[in-house]
Amino acid sequence: FFSDLSKDYTARPNNNALFFSIFLPQSTSQTMSILYEDEFVRLGQFTLFVKNYHFPTKKTKSISLEAITTLWFEEQETCKSSTTKIWGKASSASIYWALDVKRSLGSLSPRPPAKSNVVVEVGAKLRVGFSVENIDEFMDAIRTLLDYHVIIVNYINLP
Questions:
Q1: Which run of H or E residues covers position 142?
Q2: How many domains does the chain contain in total?
Q3: Domain containing 135 — which CATH number?
Q4: What's the domain of life for this entry (predicted)?
Q5: Most exposed: 47, 107, 124, 138, by fewest CB within 10 Å?
Q6: Residue range(s) defining the domain that contains residue 129
Q7: Residues 62, 53: contact at Cβ < 8 Å?
Q8: For residue 111, what pLDDT band results from cuts at 50, 70 and 90?
Q9: Is residue 51 included in any domain, yes or no?
Q10: Would the pLDDT of 42 be above 80?
Q11: Can you tell me the distance from the alpha carbon of 90 to that of 59, in angstroms, rounded to the nearest whole number?
Q12: Assign residue 138 a region: left if phi > 0, alpha if psi is -120 to 50, beta otherwise?
C-alpha cells in the first residue's frame, strides 16, 4: 500500500502531521505551519530554518525547536562587533553566523529598518547566529513554540 513504511513517524507530536507527511508533498506540509519568515530565517511549528548558513553553498540549516536550550537576541546597531561576523565563525565567540553582508557595518552605512542578531544554543560545539528583520514579530512567534526551560536573553555578550 505505502511505498515506504520504514520511516519512523513516532516523533511526530500528532496524527495530523503524520497525515500531511504521508499524503501531501513535502513543500506543502512545511509551508502550512510557517509562523515567521524573512530573507534570513523561516520559523515553522517544529523547526527553525536558518537561510544562507553553510559556506560556500549557502544551504539552509534546520534546527529542531526542541534542541534549543538558550536564545540570545540584540539589535545589530548595539551588538558588539567582536561577537559577530558577516559569515562564518566569529573569532572571539563560539558562534557560526549565517550570511548577512550588512551585519558588521554598524553605523558606518545607513540601513533600512533596524535588524537584529539572534544566537541559539543547541548543544553543539558552535552556537548558531543569524539575522532577523522584525525581532518583535520573530520573538512573539518563537516564544509560543519554545519549551518553558529555554533561557531567553535580550543581549548578546558571549565569551
A1: helix 135-145
A2: 1
A3: 2.30.29
A4: Eukaryota
A5: 107
A6: 37-153
A7: no
A8: low
A9: yes
A10: yes
A11: 19
A12: alpha
